[in-house]
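Hello Y.,

Per our agreement to keep a running log of every chain we model this quarter, I'm adding this entry. I've kept the format consistent with earlier entries: sequence first, then predicted structure.
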Amino acid sequence: MPSVTETTLRFTGGYPPLPVLTLAFGLAALMWWLYGRESRFASGPLAKLPALLRSLAVFVLVMALAGPVLRHVTTLRQLGRVIIAVDGSASMQLTDEATEKAATTTKSRYQRAEDMLLKGTTPLLKKLAETQDVEFVALRGNNTQRLWWRRQGGKDASGELPATFDLPATTPITNLDQALRSALGPVTAGTALVVLTDGQHNTSGSPEEFSATMKTAGAPVFTIGFGTEVPPPDLSLLDVIAPESVFSKENFQGRLTIQDSMPAGLPATVQIDSQGKTLWKKDFTTDGKGSKSFDFMFPVASLPPAQPGMRDKTLRSVSIRVAASGDRASLEKTRANNHRELAIHLLEKKRKVLILDGRPRWETRYLHSHFDRDDRWQASLIFDDYAEDAAKGSLQADFPKTRDELLTFDLIILGDAPLQRFKGEHLDWIVEFVEKRGGGLILLDGQRGHLRSWANGKAASLMPVRFLPPNDAPKPASLELTTDGQRFEALRLSDSPSANTSLWPTLPKLTWHANVEPQPASVTLVKAGEPAMIFRQVGAGAVLYLGTDEMWRWRFQVADLYHQRLWMQLAAWIAAPPFQIEQKQLAIGTDRLRYAPGETSEIRVRIRNDRGDIITDAQPRANLILDGKDVATLQFEPDQTHPGIYRALTPPLKAGTYEVAVAESPSSPSNDARLSLHVSDTGNPEWASLTMNRVLLETMAQNSGGRFLREEQASTDLPNLLQTLDRKQVITKETILWSSWWWFGAAILLLTAEWLLRKRLKLV
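Predicted structure for the entry above:
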């Protein structure tokens, strides 16, 4: 940190400095005259020195009346830290036509960014490095790559300024959230982020939330926009909304969204094919007015059979294509964004949830509606009718009739229902469902406190909490994630982890929550003052306790935005994990059914013994097979939520159909069961939109306290904007001369030297 110190003399005494100075000179002159007369009694070069020393001593002592003070002002200056990130995604390869603000150019957006930063008499990057600590990185999908840096006035540098980027713009996605967080690292005051991009964020994360957190940290984001805002002539397939799986006797339906910026009046077609067979087709005429959507539907039975050689007969693939026809179809900017493949898995059964409650509360009504609308779930709801004879009541009458029937469920949600309303065998089945079958149980407490009765008796082992005396008048409270709760994806209501943590307390408050404390080995995930959401592993299964039934209040003004998302995530997490292949001893499944090139798949395995009990100390392994060749060996790790479940992550996948072959132990051969993974070409999302996303870039800049600049403004405006990042610290120290020991020490030294000299000259 460079420093500059200025020292000045000031007078702070009770007398004006000019009269004191005059008096000091006068008395010093008088001393010179009085003691100078003695020099006639001595000879030599030292004869007049005693008089001079006496005059100086008098001058110093008299000047003390003016209060002389030395002021030292030290200015410490630290250069602002500037991270310059250039977008290295495929959309930066595009060239742009002439607009009112820019002339026609044959250079791509990436080349223009390179020219701005590295070319010319004084490249912008060099100019910024003269006044700032600069770090230069490239955004490569979800990651970053450091290209150059110069810090501490050149004391810490990576070398000479590069002449080119030396990296092609080829990454298939743009992430303006995670990648920028990676580029920043720890954020300190005086940091700024400069992003050169066309703003085509097309993956997970929220740039808006990220930029808002940057303002809190005092680190503005300056976005430099590249690309035209006028769409070139083009047809593109923007999005396909369709289920991953469907039952074979149902219709497959969804919605296609295309971007139309072609000249009006051209004939065009969007269609869905599979193995050369057209399943659905829609003709339309271009109008150049932007995005438009088409709903599609066709019978699943019309899909061609699985291709020969595929062991997994439940997997299908369809091709979706949009295209213009006619003489003017050649005007289209690119056809790389016209096609997409979609994988479809044919299901034999849905996941099953059993909801049991003592009465129809708002919470259970809404969550039943959530499950009922989700094609992946089949929900059974039983409310107690409080018949005088519990044996004739609805809870016992409608409860699964046999143990095996109950064990077909994946999740049980138990509400505010008394223990006494169930048969003893029902309780045994529920305990076995969790501890042996590996099912999930969610306990939803209520104000009537009936779950307290479950803490004793046969089902006591399932309880993750101890019940304390009820609060007489609980105050409204907000839910807040604990440190443990922040780690769980199931509790994520926002794509940004930091924004998610701050979001929970802002949701509508609860007017009631139970008073409990966690049992040993239980984990508190959410608090409302007291613990409100507690997790515990029980045998091979998982139990989650919710100490409130008022999360339905989160629907206020936002409907299902948070309430449905949380419940479906909790259900998927706590329920027994789904498997695409389930045999008596081996089950194999994946985290998702649909993958794009470059993504990874999480493989799940569950192994049972001959009696049907889950094995919790197995050592399974798996081979990943593509085109008949082993491409990877997968090592499994135990699932921390569901004992007896093992998980492994594949390497990044390329397009194609894979098979997963599992062996139950390192020494055993692979099982005949094969799980198929189809990695579809979803089209390059970088080509979905060919214009600059100015709205996003302006929002990021405004949220963070920065500025949005077009590329032609950056070279002139950016250096001035970044000057405000310099941090300066001024340290002022004062030396009070008139009362310091060495000020009077100087006077005493002068008088002592005079006395010794007079004695030598024999003047005393």
